[in-house]
Amino acid sequence: MAKAVKILLAGEGGQGVQSVAEIIAEAANEEGREALYIPNFGVEQRGGVSIAYLQIGDEPIGAPKFQTGDIVIALSDRAVHRTRQYVGPQTLFVYDSSIEGIDDALPTQAKKILPIPAIEVSKKELHPRVFNIVIMGAVIKATGVISVEDARNAIEKKLGYKFEKNPQLRELNFRALERGMELVAQLI
Amino acid sequence: MPDKPIEGEKRVFMTGNEVVAWAALAAGAEIMYGYPITPQNEIMHYWTRLAPRYGREFLQTEDELSAGFTTCGGVLAGRKAFTATAGPGNTLMQEPMSMAEAMRLPTVVVIQQRGGPSTATVIYSQQEVTMTTLGGNGEGLRIVYSTANHQELFDYTIKAFNTAWKYRFPTFILGDGYQAKMRESLTIYDPDIRGIELVQAEPFLGKPGVPGVDRPPTQLRNTYNVEEELYEVLEGYFKDYEKIAPEVAEHEAFGLEDAELVVVSHGVVSRACKAAVKELREEGVRVGYFRPITLRPLPVKALRETAEKVGKFLVVESAQGQLARLLKEAAFGCPVEMLELFKPGVGITAEDVVSRVKEITG
Amino acid sequence: MSVQPAMPKSWRVDTKPHKFCPGCGHGLVLKALGQAIDELGIQDRAVFGCDIGCSLLAWDFFNVDTIQTHHGRTTPVITGLKRANPNLIGIAYMGDGGGYAIGSQHLVNAAARNEKITVILVNNTQYGMTGGQMAPTTLPGQKTETSPYGRDPEKTGYPTQGPEMVAAITREGAYVARGTVANLRQLKNYLKKALENQMAGNGFSFVEVLSACPTNWRTNAEETWKMVEEEMPKYFKVGEIKVPGGQKEGEANG
């Protein structure tokens, strides 16, 4: 029996980690898989690091939060510090390569550490607004929890009303998804 | 006549608070009274958006005392009324629910537990077990369902209205911040298509006819002049409660046939326990799983039968032994050793449970 | 042979004589209320809620559906009932401790929301049921069990001006008055108007009633009436304070 894949996303407010977790969870649900997503919330969240706990599997999911993630993604320096505790010997730790001064804070026990230039890629090649979709691409490439088609459908479902008005946005988002996948593929 | 809130059934992916709002609609709840407190707020948010479409009402009160007492008023008028609260709000809620116990009012209260004591955290705990089962200056004349997942949150919220109106004891859904805020899939449905008959509400006060002319007046009180008067009323209540307890009590269990150790938990923690017990059993560890779904009344018979034949209970909860105290009382005299894994105000994972069991079994 | 006094039709005869102490004002207030209910013909629609304190002794007073609640909580119970079934006429009956101390947040917020209910608050300047402690309405210098040397306003404040407060926080549509057991005709008139205001769906209606507690005041009949008629009105002005769209009692036409 395959255990559920445990994904932890952490970043600053506005980086969109919650929306990424939600879109992936909904896509997995659409596929008929079991998905559970819970944000940190309340006082914990105000002014702090935004964390999304996401689990996807084929059996009903156990506890909503977990101690060790299969993949942990940190998108700011504070997020790197905050998420070290979720990293174990089997964890793939992904962080943005533009974050400075965190070399000492990076987890040492991870199975693999992947720096990806997601912020830079979204800013230079795409648009800063699709940064979270780049991250989404990275997550699905690294975990395989949903297929590219399902990811596209989920994005369409979530943002379709915007694409209606501006079809270029659709292309931009889909390219962001591809780029996110490529960033991880190069490293694995 | 507004359409049914849910036609047929459908698979959805939503937060627990949204689930409660849909379930209350499906159960025919007519009015919600509430006061903001995290983590139950979105029950009100969804209810206030959905209710007007189906001719239902909402009142935001000045505090939880008022939310509880207006809920009593709504029930007295013959409406399916409910409220939701948490933590310090639950503390205040005990006063009105004590009146509901004294007058056998079928109120429904959803509790989304948060950390305690005091304001503590707005996140999560299982620290409102003692208060929700035995709160107020009374004897626990109430029914408490502790749910573990969104499907149950939906099923048991509907059931809570039926239980309350059928037996006339205040009824609680005991959830928590995790269940409130997390999203997972479930199937919501029109109770009709599942053959669930909704118990009809009826007014306590304001029935047809002129009181004293066409019918005697209905005069309800919770105050008595002499000790014997109170005693007589309570004796009647205890008899009723004892009679319905076996009908109401529910539990879930597996692996008891060969278990030397049984992991006992409730609510969201039982998800971790279930996963841990399954994993351990696959490894050949003789461990079982027992989960009371009703915390009040407890499934005493099943619990005692289990406690008679297995040597050890491992009680797992996100509180410092609030469930354990209830279990010890229920299993008093049984030759069972009670071991513990208590993490007050903190979530418990399957890994936690596995390692604690291995520590015990060696 | 004594002459049986005429009882309001809405009184429940088999529970009389009532349970209040000799000289207590509650019987008089409830008589005026009974007459108002009779005259409005609402015995079948009225729901009477009574608080904790001496008001609870009215739990079987009327041939009207009745709910006896907790201390201070009659206002939310009747609010919840009225919200759930607006056809009912909700009456919340309480003392000064219930309305102005432990239940003040409910009174303030029900008034501010303009709940379509009628609150009747009996002011006898102290807590009667619990044995005569100081209340928000105790007069300066008045001796009670918890102000044995007389209420010192420097330390414990001045008597709460309830109707004035309610008038200040309600919008147009509210009815607010202060009556007295020393003038039952006027009191019945106020209570009737308060109920009519609810029936018309105008808004919140509130009547404070100056009443007597000779038991805890430890006063004889003459002293009791002096307190009600002379001492209390020095702090509590009798009359209508807010009348929806209309004229207050006693104001000249034209």
TrEMBL record, chain A:
Cited Pfam families: POR
UniProt keyword Nuclease, yes or no: no
UniProt keyword annotations, A-Z: Oxidoreductase
Start and end residues of each Pyruvate/ketoisovalerate oxidoreductase catalytic domain: 13-182
GO MF term list: oxidoreductase activity, acting on the aldehyde or oxo group of donors, iron-sulfur protein as acceptor
Name of the featured protein: 2-oxoglutarate ferredoxin oxidoreductase subunit gamma
From TrEMBL, chain B:
Keyword check for Oxidoreductase: yes
Record-annotated Pyruvate:ferredoxin oxidoreductase core domain positions: 259-331
One example GO MF annotation: oxidoreductase activity
Keywords, comma-separated and alphabetical: Oxidoreductase
InterPro entries: 2-oxoacid_oxidoreductase, PFOR_II, Pyrv_Fd/Flavodoxin_OxRdtase_N, THDP-binding, Transketo_C/PFOR_II
Domain Pyruvate flavodoxin/ferredoxin oxidoreductase pyrimidine binding: 23-246
CDD domains per record: TPP_PYR_PFOR_IOR-alpha_like (cd07034)
Protein name: 2-oxoglutarate ferredoxin oxidoreductase subunit alpha
Organism: Desulfofundulus australicus DSM 11792
Automatic annotation (TrEMBL), chain C:
Species of the source: Desulfofundulus australicus DSM 11792
GO biological process, one term: cellular respiration
Cited SUPFAM superfamilies: Thiamin diphosphate-binding fold (THDP-binding)
Membrane-spanning parts: none
Entry keyword Oxidoreductase: yes
Domain of life: Bacteria
Pfam families: TPP_enzyme_C
GO molecular function, one term: oxidoreductase activity, acting on the aldehyde or oxo group of donors, iron-sulfur protein as acceptor
Keywords for this protein: Oxidoreductase
Keyword Oxidoreductase on entry: yes
Region (Disordered), start-end ranges: 132-161
Positions with biased composition (Polar residues): 135-147
Domain Thiamine pyrophosphate enzyme TPP-binding: 60-209
Protein name, entry field: 2-oxoglutarate ferredoxin oxidoreductase subunit beta
